[in-house]
Amino acid sequence: MLVLGMMSGTSLDGVDAALIETDGRAITRFGRSEYRAYSGNEAAALHAALGRWPGEEGAAAAAELSVAAHAALAGRFPEAEVIGYHGQTLAHDPHGRGTHQAGSGAALARATGRRVVWDFRSEDVRRGGEGAPLAPFFHHACAAWAVSAGHLPAAPVALLNLGGVGNLTWTDPRIQTPEAPGACLAFDTGPANAPLNDLMRARRGTTRDEGGALALAGRADTAVVASALAHPFFDRQPPKSLDRDAFAAVDVAHLPDADAAASLVAIAAGAVARGLQFAPQMPTQVLVCGGGRHNGAMMAALGEALPCAVVPVEAAGLDGDMLEAQAFGWLAARVLAGLPTSGPETTGVPGPCCGGRISSPD
Ligand SMILES: Nc1ncnc2c1ncn2[C@@H]1O[C@H](COP(=O)(O)OP(=O)(O)OP(=O)(O)O)[C@@H](O)[C@H]1O
Ligand SMILES: CC(=O)N[C@H]1[C@@H]2OC[C@@H](O2)[C@@H](O)[C@@H]1O[C@H](C)C(=O)O
User: Which UniProt keywords apply (predicted)?
Assistant: First the structure.
């Protein structure tokens, strides 16, 4: 089936939408994609609602805004039979209050006249999993696709998503299904772009460090980096997940702008290196997707910190800006096929877990 996957990540910059043709197992074809940036007012409303749970101030407005933005974008894809709708994560506390993605799939189904698969994380959390990351089974499908297309050798590889938070999937495409033991090991690596974006907003009034120019002009403060990487999160065995602001306490207030940016980049790269130590074997390469791969300082720091090649995921014929949107399209097809969306090695859920809810327009 032809599915439209839609994702608005923790960076709160906008919505990605991408078509994918799949039965929830193999990827038959990648289709076209579009991005819709949030307006300043929309981003401000979403920021104001961060950390809020259903019923709390700002959450309902964020949910309505999310549905409206996604419906507008979905209107540009009339050919999609089904929509995979992630919603906007406002809060994530899997072993406490749960996980909260604002935006109702039922409302989106009514607004678009199409079937919507949504609420992908709750069931995993309810069953004791981390509820994240959910892209790993899709990363396995991508690796298998890239091997069959001749873009990758048939060997273990890692996919690293550098969004607001980073997440990494080690995967062996020689194993047939993603839920099979040994096919995937996945976890959030640590903070990626979110602290850098927050720094740029506070100090420069911009949304991001374009190309990593500011970080490239600075020097990482070794004491700040070491103290951030001393966080007990990095010693925890994967799977493990993070809330967007888990590292809000990293203190770079005393550093000049460029050194502060360089330090946050070094922390993000160091976090990936710490995480990769848990991989069952060193991957042939780390394929980087997500906005962070456009940050030259981030890519350079990763190249230094990791013991294997680090390349943008385009090297394997994939689209690094749309991988997460595609993931939620593929996962939607998987939910409709009744196949698991997470497992013990991706979210720590005790057994294979079929998450997601299905809403019809009528
Ligand atoms: N040209 C660029 N230069 C520097 N940084 C960039 C560039 N383009 C994107 N980014 C960074 O990538 C971020 C967006 O990444 P992405 O869209 O992958 O995140 P997300 O999907 O919102 O987050 P997550 O994956 O955590 O849910 C931006 O907020 C910015 O920090
Ligand atoms: C709770 C939540 O929304 N987590 C996001 C976030 O952004 C990156 C990282 O943290 C990952 O855990 C996840 O998103 C991706 C798409 C995932 O679930 O694989």
Answer: ATP-binding, Carbohydrate metabolism, Kinase, Nucleotide-binding, Transferase
